[in-house]
Design brief:
The chain has 217 residues and is an alpha+beta fold. It is globular and about 55 Å long. Strand 7 and strand 8 form a beta hairpin. 27% of the residues lie in helices and 29% in strands. It starts with a helix and ends with a helix. The chain has 2 domains: 91 residues, Fructose-1,6-Bisphosphatase, Chain A, domain 1 (2-Layer Sandwich), CATH 3.30.540; 114 residues, 3-Layer(aba) Sandwich (D-Maltodextrin-Binding Protein, domain 2). The chain contains 7 helices and 13 strands. An 8-stranded mixed sheet has the order 2-1-3-4-5-6-7-8, with helices on both faces. Strands 10-9-11-13-12 form a 5-stranded mixed sheet, with helices on both faces.
Length: 217
């Protein structure tokens, strides 16, 4: 894979975790790589996909990029600031909740989708009154929260060291988004999950809705 060969050439002692290629020996610096996030979209000739790369140094992600090959955009962060790169150059990412669009991750093992909090959110009147649901089926949607194109993103499950989510989370954190676990707890603790919100108001509203739908049988 091209990304792995570039890393091996430039940083031969670094670790590497790839979705399709497994993991190398543990290292203090580890690259988390998802070469094609949105595989089913790609197979269906739907131009919604991303290439995600994140560098974990110790326990923190210190650099990351999420590239949209179809749009010709690369969302990137050095761990402190966040930008989008096009042929015209780099532009700072600026989160915004103005769209009122929230992406809900509906990926689940076969037969278990009905148990997802995100599925329950789709039928929540409180959610429908305040937000418009979107289901992008690629973690490019997380980068879009950092870029101000989405008000928020919600997913369940363990996203720690995820080749899918590490880059998007780093982008959102560097851009100043509110990033927590599914119930507002510190990220990667408790029940896990992810809420990435453009601002505190959006985050508070999503937490309230999640708490409501979580009590449903």
């Amino acid at each position: 894979m091209a990304v792995r060969e570039i890393v091996r050439t430039a940083r031969p002692d670094d670790g590497f975790v790839g979705e399709e290629l497994g993991a190398s020996a543990p290292a203090d610096r580890t690259w988390l790589v998802d070469p094609l996030c949105g595989t089913l979209n790609f197979a269906a000739q739907t131009p919604l996909m991303a290439v995600n790369v994140a560098l974990r140094t110790g326990t923190a992600v210190t650099a990351a990029a999420s590239a949209d090959p179809t749009a010709g955009e690369i969302f990137w962060t050095d761990g402190e600031t966040a930008w989008v790169r096009t042929d015209q150059g780099d532009v700072p990412l600026a989160p915004s909740a103005d769209s009122a669009l929230v992406d809900l991750n509906l990926d689940a093992p076969p037969g278990q989708a009905h148990q997802l909090t995100t599925v329950r959110m789709l039928s929540s009147p409180a959610f429908a009154r305040q937000f418009g649901p979107r289901v992008l089926s690629t973690t490019l949607a997380v980068a879009w929260v950092a870029a101000g194109r989405r008000a928020g993103h919600v997913t369940e499950g363990d996203v720690r060291d995820s080749v899918h989510f590490a880059a998007g989370i780093a982008l959102c954190q560097a851009a100043g988004c509110i990033v927590t676990g599914l119930h507002g707890q510190p990220l990667h603790t408790g029940t896990g999950g992810l809420i990435a919100a453009a601002d505190q108001h959006t985050h508070t509203a999503l937490i309230r809705i999640i708490d409501q739908v979580s009590t449903l049988d």
